[in-house]
Design brief:
By secondary structure, this protein is of the alpha/beta class. The chain is built from eight helices and eight strands, in the order E-E-H-H-H-E-H-E-H-E-H-E-H-E-H-E. An eight-stranded mixed β-sheet has the order 2-1-3-4-5-6-7-8. Helix 4 crosses helix 5. The two termini are 20 Å apart.
């Protein structure tokens, strides 16, 4: 599972936050990013690639929040097209592509992003191996309008427990699945979603006990930062 956004020159790039916040420009004399970094949508891909995103600044709040992160030399922002080529040869590999947009001024337009991401996936002949996901349902609705055969899972946050009305909305919008915060996927809610014909996925599960609980529910996918902890 990965998040995609648009660079200034319209390239579909893989990055979680709307702004660069973890790396530094590696040219001599350049310093760590201090404070809010540049927005992804304000820089062309060539400029974005100048930033080393393989490590947080030592001692920063970000570094302390992820103490198990292992620094990697030479890590730069990849494009979605490059990721697809990396995984193409892996048998049965399914790529969850989150269209990262929202109401923030830092966000790209959701329809423009959806069109660009769908174009990349189609050009790579990879549509059958992608699930489009996202909290901004405008982008998912756009994908469905352009490619009704595309597989869509509609994401919800931890404040939304899910109910039959929500599941009916997802189905009516062309969604095949509910991508829920793991705490919302109780046995009752899972059964209701299944009764509505939806596939089930959970984000982001880093506790082995929760992983085991969700696996027992028979969900279709589990998003985690720690696959090494899977029971």
């Amino acid at each position: 599972e990965l998040d995609v956004q648009l660079s200034r020159d319209g390239r579909v790039v893989v990055h979680h936050d709307y702004r660069l916040n973890t790396g530094y420009a590696p040219d001599p004399g350049d310093a760590w990013i201090d404070g809010p970094g540049p927005r992804i949508k304000d820089l062309p891909l060539e400029a974005l690639r100048r930033f080393d995103i393989g490590r947080p600044r030592p001692g920063s709040d970000y570094a302390q929040a992820y103490p198990t992160l292992v620094p990697q030399d030479g890590a730069t922002l990849p494009s979605l097209a490059e990721v697809i080529e990396c995984v193409r040869a892996a048998p049965g590999f399914l790529l969850l592509v989150e269209l990262k947009s929202g109401l923030s001024d830092d966000s790209a337009d959701p329809v423009t992003l959806a069109d660009a991401a769908l174009r990349v996936v189609r050009d790579a002949d990879f549509l059958e191996r992608v699930v489009f996901v996202g909290f901004d349902w405008r982008g998912l609705v756009r994908v469905h309008a352009q490619a009704p055969q595309a597989r869509l899972w509609f994401s919800t946050d931890e404040k939304i427990p899910g109910d039959p009305a929500l599941f009916a909305m997802i189905g009516a919008a062309g969604g095949l699945g509910w991508f829920a915060h793991f705490s919302a996927l109780t046995a009752e809610r899972a059964a209701q979603a299944r009764a509505a014909g939806l596939e089930l996925a959970a984000w982001t599960v880093n506790d082995p006990a929760q992983m085991a609980r969700l696996a027992a529910l028979g969900i279709d996918a589990l998003c985690t930062d720690r696959p090494d902890l899977l029971p």
